[in-house]
Amino acid sequence: MAAIYQAVYRRASSLFCRLHSTYVRKMRYLNELKEDDSLCRQAQTSGTFYLFHNLSPFLQKVGKKYLVPQLSAAEMKRILEKFKETEQWIEKSVLIGCSDEHVPHFALDLGALEKSAIESELRGSFTDLRKALFVVDGKDSPLLALAQSLLRWHDSHQYCSKTGQPTQKNVAGSKRVCHGSGITYYPQMSPVVITLVSDGSRCLLARQPSFPQGMYTALSGFCDVGENVEETVRREVAEEVGLEVESLWYSASQHWPFPSSCLMIACHALVRAQQAEDILAVYVFVKPATV
User: pLDDT for 4-34, tens place per residue?
Assistant: First the structure.
């Protein structure tokens, strides 16, 4: 009887923790916004907005720091009215997350409006995303990368690839639908491997002709159709530097918005020391401490 009670108690405790998990509640709330247009439209009236202009995020410099301002729905309404635009512009926004308190975050591109006028009104500047990622707070970088990728995807998927008819985005921006063919399009990411090759004591770095003087990088490349991560690493290393990988292991991954939207998969690869010696005249091996 005691064993049954303990099993029931553990199950109830697990259910309680799941229901009260901040992360779980956030994910379920975001999913509801993606699936329910009416609910998401309502959320836009209480959410915050990250602004872009032709895919460049809006930043404000305060002292030596660069901040990513979040504009309220009321502020967005005021700005649109000032530029004689209707509130229907808000429909062009995309959902990119929410706070722990379920305040939804949206991204909106104002590329059709005059850039300098917006910058003057809001006292900031639209900055190239590559530069912005190096100067903003670490917690803002993933949101900016996600926002730009979603905005770019919607801009390039306005027509159905089968019928040529316009596609319609849902309010959250999590998909587009062609009502003529019934096809639903979802944002996608391209898997890319980036591999640090080592001979056990040194790391291999390579460079492209377009790189600035002194700039080197680990090897990277897109996964081909039908390949797994391991096969991509082996092929890329063989293609780019003519080495055969003996062993490899996964390290970490992250979303990367360039050139469009990629899933960057970081790996380590080990090659024989003798192979490394054969290509020293072409590539650079360095001690790990200097990387």
Answer: 555 554 565 555 555 568 999 999 999 999 9
pTM: 0.84
52-83, pLDDT tens digit by residue? 999 999 999 999 899 999 999 999 999 999 88
Closest by Cα among 82, 84, 77, 19 to 49? 77
Q: Is the CB of residue 234 less than 8 Å from the CB of residue 266?
A: no
157 CB-near residues (< 8 Å, 6+ apart) = 167, 176, 185
CA dist list (Å): 55 to 77, 145, 160? 21, 10, 22
Under a CB-based contact definition with an 8 Å cutoff, are residues 216 and 284 in contact?
A: yes
- 161 neighbors 190 (Cβ within 8 angstroms): no
Which residue type, as a one-letter code, is found at position 116?
A: S
* Torsional sign, CA 169, 171, 174, 179: negative
CA 270 from chain centre, in angstroms, equals 29
Let me know if 269 is exposed, middle or buried by CB neighbors in 10 A (0-12, 13-18, 19+): buried
Vertex 33, ends 159 and 78: CA angle to 5°?
A: 80
**170 — phi, psi (to 5°)?**
-75, 170
Cβ proximity of 195 and 218 under 8 Å: yes
Cβ–Cβ < 8 Å for 238, 197: no
In sequence order, which residues have a C-beta less than 8 Å from that of residue 185 and are 6 or more positions away?
157, 160, 167, 175, 176, 177, 178
Contact 267, 229 (CB under 8 A): yes
Token output for 204: 């291999």
Please name the residue that has the structure tokens 């850039």: 115
